[in-house]
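Just scan my protein:

. . .
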Amino acid sequence: MSPECPNCHYVLDESEEICPNCGTYVKEFDKEVDSERFTFSFFLTEAFMSIFKPEAVKMEPDEAVYRKRPYKPLYKYLILAEVMVCLGLSLGYGNTWMRNIGFTVASFATPLIYMYWMTQNDRYEPEPKTLVAYLFAWGMIAGIISTYFNPRIAAYMGIGGAAFIEEPLKLLGLYLMSTGRKTGYEMNNHLDGMVYGAAAGAGFAALENIYYISDMVIRQGSPILSAILFRATTSFCHIAWTAIAGRSLGLARALKGWIHWTDYIPGLLIVIPLHFFWNSFPLMLRGWFILPVTILILYRDVDMALKDEMRWGYETLAPDEA
């Protein structure tokens, strides 16, 4: 009798490891997992291979993927997020963000829509909205810090040099949260890393948009809708790049059960070049090359992470953390 997929019951060939119908990994997990194999070079290689074709996790994950954070109220992170948002807006724009509240709302619109889409992908184990808001606020603080360093690195590397400042700063908030004593276990796997990464990228994009949208409308005379749509692509890229970088942190948690500082690096080595070339290339090359590549990488990463969660039984076993 021919084997069938345990998820969709598609009839399989004996040699098939992945269901061609739904993408489920159908062989038994490799239970002989040697933790020493999860070296920096392992995750670096995996990150670069995921650019072309992310692979299913073919080994039994660490118990951390099912671990629930011990219950502790998270309201203080919401308060901190509110303070950080107000601080970022005030440091970046004084009180003009309140006087020109229309530009502020317009600047937040597309990043929040993209962030909402990303959180909806996390269907089996939604992340706490409090921590998503906290990472969004961190992205705004990262934007403020980058305004100090960007002109200095641009003097040596041009405008593309901002990628070496902005991407590590955005991801730093995610790294600190995922290694924190009280919040670390909210990061269970690579999909979680992408959700939190997207939140940090959205906060950064929202803060940056205020300057660019107001400049396009007031100084250049562009219609506000045109300015919003023009900035929508850069907003998406900021969100996608930090999500892709955050994937490596989440994958380290899923496979090892813990995150080392070196796990901070592989994802950055993927997204910093994308960001560098986005800033450096002419507009047409951005739209016809960098944007499609970014969309494709993010789509494949999210799709495979969801399939991994299905293989791990998240439909019934996912930790309830919302």
The mean pLDDT is 86.
